[in-house]
Amino acid sequence: MIVTIDGPAGAGKSTVSRALAARLGFDFLDTGAMYRAITLAAVRNQVAWSRPDELAALARSVRIEVAERRVWLDGDDVSSAIRANEITNLVHYSANNPSVRERMVELQRAAAQGRNMVTEGRDQGTVVFPDAECKIYLTASPSERARRRYAELAARGETVAFAEILAQQQLRDERDAARTCGPLAAARDSIEVLTDGLSPDQVVDRLEALARRSLNLPTTTSTSRSLPQSA
Ligand code: DC
Q1: Which of 2, 26, 112, 147 could make a disulfide contact with 132, Cβ separation 3.0–4.6 Å?
Q2: Is residue 227 part of a domain?
């Protein structure tokens, strides 16, 4: 069984997708981390951004492992390094490279083989797992998303002005939506969940109810207690 969670940067996907996977007893796949790891590999190997063929070759030669909260690049734990603002601003080179995407899609499908999985990204419900049993499109308003990103960077000790975060986010949204291969889009059969004003727990409650319904899993007592009737 596959649950896909797609949506723009800062919608809160990672936190709630992870928590949803734990509640369902499913594995979790953070596909953004994979694009970030390729980007970090390119920085470390000094691949020129003007050479998309070299980036594609690199994506085929490095070993990326993603497990729960950790990411390894050729055995090196890069979980923190891939979240740096520098990587965030460069990751579009990997995400917009069709050959890199082709490789990532292969790896993502292989990772899900024979497993129950919650998978999070931009193209999970549209391209990677078009037959997923439950597809969610998670989003929030631009200001709410930028506010979350600001807090996340501050927690890492990185200070970036709010206005700059908002501008970077808009650029990323445009790039995510505009690419020809695997653009950010809600699958036609996805359910949209807007997270403004909701705590992560409230979002997870809502997603869990949606997922259990779509997957025909029994509902839990705590979920039915905390779930708004409209979810
Ligand atoms: O979710 P994130 O911010 O960690 O994702 C990093 C980048 O990777 C983001 O700019 C969009 C891209 N991405 C993608 O193109 N396809 C995915 N399935 C996941 C992420």
Answers
A1: 2
A2: no
